[in-house]
Design a protein that fits this description.
Blueprint lengths: L4 H14 L4 H23 L16 H8 L19
């Protein structure tokens, strides 16, 4: 999901307004912004030049699978890490 630079700036402005009287939160916001920028740069510098197939195995209940099916196109939050492999 791509976001425009304008949307990012609007969100940053909203946070700055929200926390304008809280220097600790403003400092955390600045640190978070720097961390996100570094992660973005790392991704840009280390992206694959071609598509690769990766495989993932995860034991899930039928209820969890239904929840995922019903969440297509939406954000999904998980309390675990997903692991991938080049081997099937």
């Amino acid at each position: 999901m791509e976001s425009s630079s304008n949307e990012k700036q609007e969100l940053i402005a909203l946070f700055k307004q929200q926390y304008k009287n809280n220097p600790i939160e403003l400092k955390l916001l600045k640190n978070l912004k720097m961390a996100i920028h570094q992660i973005d740069q790392y991704g840009e510098n280390n992206k694959c030049s071609s598509f690769i197939h990766v495989y993932q195995a995860q034991l899930m209940s039928k209820e969890e699978i239904e929840i995922l099916k019903n969440s297509i196109g939406n954000f999904v939050s998980m309390n675990s890490f997903l692991s991938t492999s080049l081997n099937q």
